[in-house]
């Protein structure tokens, strides 16, 4: 080759100190036999470049000359590669391999062996020379310029030329030679280096990637990084560079550098003999350095962690073989645009690894979004197919009647359940309010059908004697008189909630005339039933257990908070918490564990987007709901074959309860989706609150995502928060199906039901049941025009907002409201707005004030009490928030309870 090695230097000992050290070590450790054998097997490999190396002395002479080596290239551009391979090929021979630190993940040790440590020190010595002006000559530079694979015309030659070989090695491209793709689109990730893509692997929940049957840990690759646990379920990518490539690395996506350091490690190169692939059939062998992914986990490497729009991205330029120097061009806090330089190699480098978080997976998200966009209309049509009188699957069902299933035998489900119907229509009401006004006539049909069904005398009773608790009816609105698990007391509450949601829309859009004679009576009957019977036992939602069911009590509580407040099932809600999870049923006589998807359904059907993470109402983001989510879902991991081998923290199929034997006991779609929906709801709530709190109760849940997380509050900018898998965030449009479902209906979040006040047990609510009047709905004629969804009145610009606050006060004490808008005093305690006690009684301690506010204004506020002596008592945090509705309604009421 052109770059022929110089003769060994004439030092007193004959060798450079680092080589002499190796020679002495071999001698005094009795390794001469091993090394002689390594030289022999390497020589006998048939590789051309090993032919001149027959003895240990030949080899030591070679590595000694390498320390003063002026690299140069032949026309083929393989000389440098071959010299590196020759150095390592001897160390890769079986007789000396076990003197080095193991590379395999399971055998790794903290401390390097003497030989591995020597290899690192040798590489450093070699690098020192390559940093000197003697490492480059006119002749050696010309050899690179003459070697086509180096593409030297693409690079800027500095004024005065490259002063050292390492400067040449890290040469810069001329501007414009590497344009950055999609510079403004952060969803397009660009290659960080001129390199050959080797592959990508999914990172498991245990941080592992399996590459060619070997398990490597991303947490080890990132060597103590505070972000090491963030990449579970993400993607690991490996690419490699050759000696002739451009050796600078660039940001694959724009972001802020949150960590930048060099991790010391081994220097290593796997070299094996390979057959002649020139096609000349020369019967000679050549060096092959296969560069598989894996041993980069222990090599010297750079680590740059970028905080980007697609989550954290770890970029690891890997030092390989000689020198293995990675020089970082950035430091913590640097903001990089896509394509800006973040590091470069000195001679020897190079592999490149990228590690992405799970949430960066645009392709997966796009696939889900596409699926949902296609599937949503199909699913909606499927629902409508089961509603009379025009549902394709249910001929014979009366108008507005939801049929559980078209199946008429084994099982015969051709009936209409009050629960199923209410949950179905709550979804249709939310979808209609979100813009699909074509559903309004179905909703009107449902209301008319329920007005009739409420009056049908049945085995549970008549309208005012318990008949509303009857679980199911014939599809032609007749009573079902066969034996059944009755009563089921969730139905009236769910129906009230569905109709309240619709009535609010009607009122806000000028159709109060529909509410008064029609929907209000149906709602009032249902609320009367709940008030009267909430503390009586009944059958649970699975129609199996007779007792007090969490789902039933939770939805009853919600309905009463939404409607009126004479009774308060919240008093019972707390009894379902057993210290680690939510019991599905109490006051019952079954011997089951109590883990039951009943509890997930209870939380999602009482989800309030405006609520805090309240444990008392088991809001989705509450510590208790999350702890329960983990306990419950984990209880199904070992039960169903479909879940086998899926680690904790990863989604699985969810059944009703672990002891279920119905039809053999299987996962249920409704429960699997409820488990997912609860998490979407929690994310929605945290995103609104701007932080999440980990408590000792929810710690096991969070540890599945972030194994080292500790209790505390984490703002939305913190790594602990952003490491949570986030739903995709399309700009929500009211009718976008993908935003509805994937981003927890970002375009169709159900309305608040006041759960932010319901977490404190209202003092005005009785702990016992109450009797209320029942009345039949009289008028089921709906105004024409309602179905178009257009308001029947002009949009109001100012709304009279009534603030009702329940708080028992002592004589002389007064209640005020203060908030972030001028009308509420701009948080100035001197400008608070006084509430009046005109409606106050000891049974119902109501303080109230009405303030005119511009429609659409969102503001924060709080109540405070001023005491006789001048003392001021503020409500506890957090601030309350309210958005003045923009509709044709000119009044609205916000009901709060002191906290
Ligand atoms: C059985 C389910 O457990 C129950 O919740 C449902 O109401 C009925 N099937 C009818 O769909």
Polypeptide structure, described:
Residues 716-754 are annotated as: Disordered. It holds the Pfam family PS_Dcarbxylase. Residues 716-726 have a biased composition (Polar residues). It is an enzyme of class 3 (hydrolase). Residues 731-746 have a biased composition (Low complexity). By secondary structure, the chain is of the alpha+beta class. Among the domains are: 17-169, no CATH class; 187-364, Glucose Permease (Domain IIA); 798-897, Immunoglobulin-like (Sandwich), CATH 2.60.40. It contains 23 helices and 29 strands. The protein has a seven-stranded antiparallel sheet, with no helix packed on it. Strands 23, 24, 26, 27 and 28 form a five-stranded antiparallel sheet that branches. Helix 12 crosses helix 14 (512-533), helix 13 packs antiparallel against helix 14 (512-533) and helix 13 runs parallel beside helix 15. The longest helix has 23 residues, at 362-384. The radius of gyration is 36 Å and the shape is elongated. The protein starts with 16 loop residues before the first helix and ends with a strand. The model is unreliable at 7-12, 278-282, 728-747 and 760-767 (pLDDT under 50). Bound molecules: 1-deoxynojirimycin. 1-deoxynojirimycin binds next to helix 11.
Radius of gyration: 36 Å
Number of helices: 23
CATH architecture assignment name of the domain at 187-364:
Distorted Sandwich
CATH topology tier name of the domain at 187-364: Glucose Permease (Domain IIA)
CATH class of the domain at 187-364: Mainly Beta
Shape by Cα distribution: elongated
Strand content: 15-25%
Helix content: 25-40%
> Biggest sheet, open or closed, and with what strands and sense?
7 strands, antiparallel
The spatial strand order of the largest sheet comes to 1-4-14-10-9-6-12
What is bound: which ligands?
1-deoxynojirimycin
Task: Write down the overall mean pLDDT.
Answer: 84
Q: Got a strand count?
A: 29
What is the structural class? alpha+beta
How far is the N terminus from the C terminus?
A: 84 Å
Uncertain stretches = 7-12, 278-282, 728-747, 760-767
């Amino acid at each position: 080759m052109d770059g022929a090695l110089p003769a060994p230097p004439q030092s007193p000992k004959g060798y450079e100190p680092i080589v002499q050290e190796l020679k002495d070590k071999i001698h005094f450790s009795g390794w001469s036999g091993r090394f002689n054998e390594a030289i022999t097997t390497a020589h006998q490999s048939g590789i051309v470049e090993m032919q001149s190396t027959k003895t240990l002395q030949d080899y030591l002479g070679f590595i000694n000359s390498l320390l003063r080596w002026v690299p140069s290239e032949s026309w083929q551009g393989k000389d440098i590669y071959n010299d590196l391979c020759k150095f390592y090929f001897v160390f890769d021979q079986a007789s000396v391999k076990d003197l080095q630190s193991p590379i395999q993940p399971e055998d790794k040790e903290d401390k390097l062996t003497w030989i591995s440590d020597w290899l690192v020190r040798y590489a450093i010595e070699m690098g020192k020379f390559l940093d000197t002006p003697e490492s480059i000559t006119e002749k050696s530079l010309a050899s690179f310029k003459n070697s086509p694979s180096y593409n030297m015309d693409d690079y800027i030659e500095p004024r005065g030329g490259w002063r050292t070989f390492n400067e040449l090695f890290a040469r810069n491209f001329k501007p414009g030679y590497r344009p950055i793709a999609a510079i403004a689109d952060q969803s397009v990730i660009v290659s960080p280096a001129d390199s050959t893509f080797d592959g990508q692997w999914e990172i498991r929940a245990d941080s592992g990637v399996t590459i060619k049957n070997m398990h490597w840990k991303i947490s080890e690759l990132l060597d103590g990084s505070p972000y090491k646990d963030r990449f579970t379920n993400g993607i690991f990518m490996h690419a490699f560079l050759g000696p002739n490539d451009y050796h600078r690395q660039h940001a694959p996506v724009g972001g802020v550098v949150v960590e930048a350091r060099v991790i010391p490690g081994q220097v290593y190169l796997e070299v094996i003999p390979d057959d002649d692939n020139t096609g000349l059939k020369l019967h000679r062998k050549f060096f092959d350095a296969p560069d598989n992914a894996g041993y980069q986990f222990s090599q010297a490497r750079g680590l740059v962690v970028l905080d980007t729009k697609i989550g954290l991205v770890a970029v690891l330029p890997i030092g390989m073989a000689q020198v293995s120097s990675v020089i970082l061009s950035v430091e913590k806090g640097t903001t990089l645009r896509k394509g800006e330089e973040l590091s470069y190699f000195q001679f020897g480098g190079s592999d490149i690894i990228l590690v992405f978080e799970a949430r960066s997976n645009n392709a997966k998200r796009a696939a889900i979004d596409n699926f949902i966009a296609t599937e949503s209309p199909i699913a909606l049509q499927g629902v409508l197919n089961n509603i009379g009188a025009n549902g394709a699957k249910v001929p014979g069902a009366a108008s507005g009647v939801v049929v559980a299933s078209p199946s008429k035998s084994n099982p015969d489900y051709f009936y209409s359940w009050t629960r199923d119907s209410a949950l179905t229509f709550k979804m249709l009401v939310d979808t209609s309010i979100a813009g699909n006004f074509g559903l309004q006539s179905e909703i009107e049909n449902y209301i008319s059908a329920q007005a009739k069904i409420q009056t049908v005398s049945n085995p549970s009773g008549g309208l005012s004697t318990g008949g509303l608790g009857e679980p199911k009816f014939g599809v032609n609105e007749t009573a079902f008189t066969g034996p059944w698990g009755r009563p089921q007391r969730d139905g009236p509450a769910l129906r009230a909630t569905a109709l309240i949601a619709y009535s609010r829309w009607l009122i806000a859009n000028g159709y109060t005339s529909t509410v008064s004679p029609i929907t209000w009576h149906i709602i009032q009957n249902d609320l009367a039933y709940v008030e009267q019977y909430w503390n009586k036992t009944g059958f649970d939602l699975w129609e199996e257990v007779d007792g007090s069911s969490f789902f039933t009590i939770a939805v009853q509580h919600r309905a009463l908070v939404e409607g009126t407040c004479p009774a308060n099932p919240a008093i019972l809600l707390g009894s379902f918490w057993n210290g680690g999870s939510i019991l599905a049923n109490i006051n019952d006589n079954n011997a089951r564990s109590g883990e039951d998807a009943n509890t997930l359904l209870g939380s999602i059907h009482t989800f309030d987007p405006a609520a805090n993470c309240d444990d008392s109402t088991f809001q989705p983001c509450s510590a208790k709901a999350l702890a329960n989510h983990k306990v419950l879902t984990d209880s199904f991991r070992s039960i169903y074959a479909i879940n086998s081998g899926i680690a904790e923290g990863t989604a699985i199929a969810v059944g009703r309860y672990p002891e279920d034997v119905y039809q053999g006991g299987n996962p249920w779609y409704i429960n699997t989706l409820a488990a997912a929906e609860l998490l979407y709801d929690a994310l929605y709530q945290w995103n609104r609150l701007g932080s999440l709190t980990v408590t000792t109760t929810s710690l096991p849940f969070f540890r599945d995502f972030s194994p080292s997380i500790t209790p505390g509050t984490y703002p939305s900018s913190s790594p602990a928060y952003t490491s949570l898998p986030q739903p995709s965030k399309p700009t929500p449009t009211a009718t976008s199906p993908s935003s509805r479902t994937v981003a927890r209906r970002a375009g169709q979040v159900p309305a608040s039901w006041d759960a932010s006040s319901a977490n404190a047990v209202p003092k005005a609510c009785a702990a016992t049941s109450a009797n209320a009047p029942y009345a039949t709905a009289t008028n089921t004629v709906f105004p024409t025009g309602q179905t178009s969804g257009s308001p029947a009145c002009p949009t109001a610009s100012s709304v009279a907002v009534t603030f009702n606050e329940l708080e028992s006060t002592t004589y002389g004490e007064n209640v005020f409201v203060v908030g972030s808008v001028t009308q509420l005093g701009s948080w100035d305690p001197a400008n608070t707005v006084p509430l009046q006690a005109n409606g106050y009684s000891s049974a119902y301690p109501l303080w109230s004030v009405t303030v005119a506010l511009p429609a659409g204004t969102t503001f924060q506020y709080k109540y405070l009490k001023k005491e006789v002596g001048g003392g001021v008592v503020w409500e506890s945090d957090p601030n309350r928030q309210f958005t003045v509705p923009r509709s044709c309604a000119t009044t609205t009421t916000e009901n709060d309870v002191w906290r």
